[in-house]
Each structure stands twice: as C-alpha cells, then as structure tokens.
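Possible regression after last week's pipeline update?

I re-ran a chain I had predicted before the update to compare outputs. Posting the input and the new output here so someone can diff against the archived version. Not blocking, just want to make sure nothing changed silently.
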Amino acid sequence: MAVCSRAHVTKSVDVADSKSAAARRASSSLAVGTNDGRSAQAGERTAGRGRWSAVLHSAPFALCPDTAMPPMPPITKALLLAFVGMFCLSILAPAVQHWLALWPLNSGYFMPWQPLSYAFLHGDPVHLFFNALGLWMFGSELERIWGRKRYAQLLLASVLAAAFVQLLIASLGPGRPTVGASGALFGLLLSYGMLFPDRVIMPLFPPIPMKAKVFVAVFGGLELLMGLTGNTGVAHFAHLGGMLGAYLLIQYWRRR
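New output (post-update):
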C-alpha cells in the first residue's frame, strides 16, 4: 500500500500549527471582548480540522489519494465475473446446471469435465454472494502475494480435491449433483490462516474478532461436525476436501 510523501506530511503539520495559533488568537480576542463567540468557535473548528489532517496524513497507512484500495487482481476479478455470468446463464438456460454440475459416478450423468465445471455454478443468489465475498476477501491478497501462477494452482488443487472427496462420499449412498466454489473458498481460507495465523479478522458470522488460525479451526471443525451429524443438503465434506487440497499443495511448495 502506498504511503504519502514526507513533504505532504510536513505541510499538513505546518498548516495545523498555523491554524492552531489562529484559534488561540481568536479565543484571546473573545476573552477581552474584541470578537464575538462565533468567530472563536469557527477558528477552533478550523484548527481541529487541521490537526486531524496532520494525524491522518502521518498515520502508518495514510488516508490520502495515493493509498486507495488496490485494484482487484486479474484472476480473482475474472472468476467473479465468471461466477456471475454462469449464474445468469443457468437462469436463462437451466440445462446448464444438468451438464456442468458434479454428478455422482453411479448416477449415469457424470461427465469428465464436471470435477472442474461444477465450481462455476451456484444454487441461489445467497450461495453466489458468500462465495464471491470470500473469494474477494481472501483470494485478492493471496493472489498479490503468490502471483497468478501459484494462485491458480492452489484454486485448481482445492476444486479438484473437493470434487474427489465429494465423489467418494456420494458413492456411499444416493447422491445429488453438487455445485459451487465453496471447496476453493475453504482452500483459500486455510491458506490465509497458514500465511497469516495471527492476523485478526472479523467474519460476518459470528461478528466476533478472532485470529485467522482460530477462524480456520472453528469453521473446519463445524464442517466436520455438520458433515457427520446429518444430511443438510450442503457438501460439507467437499469443503474439507478443498482445505485438504490446499494444505497438501502448500506443504509441497514448502518442501521444494
């Protein structure tokens, strides 16, 4: 993140000092009756704005035009556009869901491309929103750190591992088609927790600040618990498969 130049900071502080002096003179004039109360209050408000300007421009992450939010990385941006586009297409042409969703191996509808294509589909707007939000929150920073190649490799490993685990679970009983990029999202979540274990984040649910490593452990444990206790219509083991794929790939990178 860019930081404002030292010259900009010095200028802001000088402006604050000069305006503070103006405020003090206005207050003295009020005491002896030379100015009315409104002039003194206006001077104090101006000085206050000057002091806040100095603080904001000299902060570690200065709030100036040079420190605007960085642009979204290309792969993350392309995936978000693809998610929205495929969701709209599935509404206009419902047959898309049938051909691209991940069907169980024994269903008679399984196709070789489905372990990858299922990640671009979503069941409803809420499903799409939370996956897109997670991709933007965690994926953007990971792509900037790792670069496009490694970021794409991790997403692919997470998606394929999630599909593999889901196919195994579906083979144990009557299965339904699976859609969604949640496996990739949980892979990104695990990666974020491994890279920034002590960084404090604020999830939407529950809205409680917690360290990234705690967040990963809590959500991983919940996915395992919900996967073992009942059929909720959510591919919980696929989420765990996405985390497993990301973990194995990161361990492979570390050993090279």
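Follow-up from reviewer: compared with the archived run. Confidence is low (pLDDT under 50) at residues 1-24, 26-37, 46-67. Marking as no regression found.
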